[in-house]
Amino acid sequence: MTKRTINPLILIGGALIGLSVMLLLTGRDLWASQGCTMLYNPGNGWAVETCPSDPEITIPMDIFLDGAFQGEGAYVRVYHQSQDHTGSPQVAVLYASGFVRLKQNANPEPPIPFGSSFVLGPGYWSDDASYHHSPQLSRLDIDTSWLPNGPLRMHAVGRNQAFSLSYDLTLPPPRDRQTRLHVTQTYTATTAVTIPEQRRIEAQGFKLAQISSMFISEDGVCDGDHTECHDGNAVRFIGQDLARHQRAFKDIPPATLFYTSSVSLGSTWLDALHTNDESWQGNTPNVRISLDFLPDEHAVSPQGWINPSSDPNDDNVGLWLNDNGLASQSWLVGQSDTVSYWLIAQDDPLEPWVDLGLRAGQTFLDFESVYDCFFVHDGDQGTSGAVRTIAGYSDTSLEMAYDLGDSDGNWVQLRCNFNPPLDLSDADHLRFDWRGDPQAANSLEIGLVNPGDDQEHIFGHQFQYATHRYWWSQMVMPFGFLHPWTEGTQFDPNHVSAFFISVVKEHEDDVGGAGQIAIDNLNAYSVISRTIPADFEVVTVNEKAADAAASWLVAQQQPTGLLKSWQEDSDNIAYTYDQALALLVFSREAMWNQADNVVAGLSQAQNGDGSWFSSYDAGDSLLPCIHCEKWEGANSWVLYALNRYLESGGTQPAATTMRSKTAEWLASRIDPATGCLDIDHTEGTIDAWWAMQAAGPAFVEQEEGLKKCLLTHYWDEEMGRFKGGQEWRQPYLDNQTWGAAFLKAVGEDEKALRALSYAREVLLLPTQGAQLYGFDGQAGPWSVWNEGTAQYAAAGGHEANDLVSELLAQQRVDGSIPGSPDYFDGGGVWTPRWHGVAPTAWFYNALSGEPFHRSLNHALYLPAIQS
């Protein structure tokens, strides 16, 4: 099969066009091309090959494998065993010219060909006639030490005329549906550069990353009597207006820029689509560039160029993300910047809710045909708005534009009526797609309506401070979580006469004012009838990743003995719960100096009654509290960690006394009449059970009381999950993960599997750019929460290894894990992109069979995962 690269010296009309013919492997089995050298092929599913020359590569790069020089190469190819084990197709190619090719890991017959390419950035114009398109890589270091279930890591250096460049490249294990490459790209000016004003106006002055593709026709004939002469056929992105912008290449006049006026990104991604399965080469992939985040300080604009051509070997389409910010207008010597993004290739256009199986059930309204939806408001409040259809993520959606004004209590509503009423009796959860507005942070209310004889009956729930969640995702709500507006009424899923979504200025942080919110694919599905896995999944250990995680935790320890919880936090806050997690890791790793120091810091901070406050200033030798409330859950974790420290061989004399005092304090928080905590809180009760069973024989009565409380008052037998409180139906992840470990410990394996499967059915979600997925801690769900995702894996939930792979893809070389790939603060959650003790420690737990380890005193329970 022939395929082409692009000559970085040929420019046509401001876009890069070129031609090369070369042989690429796409067959079902791995083999080395003539003249190429297999660098790595140990039989673990991965292989890496280097090839010395290519007609379009004039300067090769030095290649190092695990620190050893391997010679020069024009490009490197990566192979990976497909998930169905039918072969090891080629999935990635990296060229010395900065070009990257990716394709999914499936291995059908005929083979999947490469199609559109990526070009590492930046590309830029130094004057109106001089365009510098692609980097020249001079060195590529390949690190295989994280394989096989961790990522292949690479580091490349080079330059593009005035800029010296470095790239950290992370290739997670490819999946049959998708291959991803993460790029952290740093560029430093070595000479002064001024970007021409006209090129900036055209959104092509400073290109962060690019896609190179080919489109001649979808049904005509091109050179060589080929038909379906294209590798891609459309561009797609979400604009700053929060609507989808999608154009077919056939509708774009050749030799023109795609957009005559700049349209900034409103989400993180840009797609080059291949909307059918036909191409002159075969079914070439869809590709995406997805930024890790949209920079606040400047705009990023998609732009493109298509050149007339009849040659199917001619990459005549260029797409890119242009940096429109002030910093990219001119560069001084030594000025530097960094951008990070994902490059993604998969068969079908990325639609993550379909890809992850999050579309099951009955979709009763998708706005593709007739509907009865309208705007509702209280005219006396001075609010206003309107409802209209827009281009949603992939098809038609409904949007409400509104102005709440600035008075508390103001509201607007988008309502959809159903006549006759819907019968949703086969379902128990509501699910729909939605998108808010980054400029409009207000409260969100969701509801369903039953008809009545005299008046309709409304059932709803409000999420405070949530409407600024601006990227497309799903909202999931149990019917049992919808509260009646009229006392004494009960929701009837057999007769649903309306759905509504309201925006309210109510919470103290709500801003009111103008905004917009959109919905799509209203759906109801049954979680009760879900398939329950037959057993728990054992996570494959990655010692390199676990060791790195433990080492990073050591680096977070302060002279006071406590660990700073978030690396990027300007305040040196040590959360008490995080200290317990770190102590568990240090005890497991026999890092006694670090463990002893944590114990010493906790000993100094302990209150006279045996409790701890929620957080402390780890940078102050006096350890003053910052969050000065006493939380039963955090205290339970410290008690549990102290017990594990002592059982594992810890020798700090104060630890035994500390454990006893905390156990006495926690026991005082338990109502002896019911066995429950004084507070009505599922998570805290689970935590307390783990603490009491570790506290020793003196606390068996409290342990048994908490067990009975959990199984009697907090377990929801019908739904097969733990509730949020005795009468609180909101889904929470840690209730299911820590709760599953509790259930296994008391011999309730079937209930444990049900709890974990409930979490998967309700709280699974993709990231904004669909490059990663995981769990949120509660419905919404709002944003991927890495700590909770690791908790699920540590408990042995279904597809635990796939979720660990998602975490491995985010782990930095220093071992740390971020709180989330997407920042969000609202709806009751906070998911920072900071790197933290809790996500890193739980990631370690998932890889090492922790933290619910066999008790040395009681021999009571087995770990969820054994290393």
If you had to describe this structure to a student in words, what would you say it looks like?
- This protein is α+β, with helices and mostly antiparallel strands and 867 residues long.
- The protein has three domains: 2-348, Beta-galactosidase, Chain A, domain 5; 362-525, Galactose-binding domain-like (Jelly Rolls), CATH 2.60.120; 543-848, Glycosyltransferase (Alpha/alpha barrel).
- 19% of the residues lie in helices and 31% in strands.
- The chain is built from 14 helices and 51 strands.
- The strands form twelve sheets. Strands 5, 6, 9, 10, 11, 12, 13, 14, 20, 25, 28 and 29 form a twelve-stranded antiparallel beta sheet that branches. An eleven-stranded mixed beta sheet has the order 8-7-15-16-17-18-31-27-26-23-24, with no helix packed on it. Strands 32, 34, 35, 37, 40 and 43 form a six-stranded antiparallel beta sheet that branches.
- A hairpin with a 2-residue loop joins strand 50 (824-826) and strand 51 (829-831).
- The longest helix is centred in the last third of the chain and has 17 residues, at 632-648.
- The chain starts with a strand and ends in a 19-residue tail after the last helix.
- Mean pLDDT is 93; it is low at 1-32 and 854-867.
